[in-house]
Design goal:
Layout lengths: L1 E2 L21 E13 L2 E7 L7 E11 L7 E6 L3 H4 L17 E6 L2 H14 L3 E6 L1 E3 L12 E3 L7 E7 L17 E6 L12
Parallel strand pairs: 8-9
Antiparallel strand pairs: 1-5, 2-3, 2-4, 5-10, 6-11, 7-10
Amino acid sequence: MNKVSKHRKKDGNQARNDWMDGALEVRQLNHITFLPTNATRKIVFESEPKAPEHIKLERARLCQYDDKHDGNIYCMTAINDEWLKNNNILDKRMTGFGGEKLSVVVIHNIPVFLMRIKSKLDEMRLGADWGLVKYYDPSQQHEQLSPFHKSSEYSYQNEFRIYVHRFEAGELIINIGPLQDIAEHIIINDLDNFNIYLDV
């Protein structure tokens, strides 16, 4: 499980990396304002100009982060009823998570999976939250965001996220043992032919 901040680093992987991941506030900036301060000038980015001397911006965005929210995360795609209303195949952009061969681990007993994770985290004296990620329009103002918010650019992932409250640097490894009884590993040769249906 990597730190939230690691997902903000650009390494060419558009599926994994989101420079806004973990932002607690997103502000839209339309102007650079130059304010005189003694012998120098102070540059301020603002939504509206506060002094006559300013430059209008076509587009700019300010994200605010807090190290207190830089925990470790484990990300999965949720195949739930809401997703199945409009989908039966995974988005082609999901191939960004694989190597030469794309594969998925289908967890068919989510309560047991989460129970095993919680049990291991309890042993490690670590707390966690989990749930579906909420997606927001990055072109608008947003306050009071959390590690469970992401830009709508990534909504195709329909992410279910486990967030571990851990402030030590580096990745977190959790060993919950074999998953053969609650999951299945599937190799996908052709994403277009990997259809998903709800069996009721």
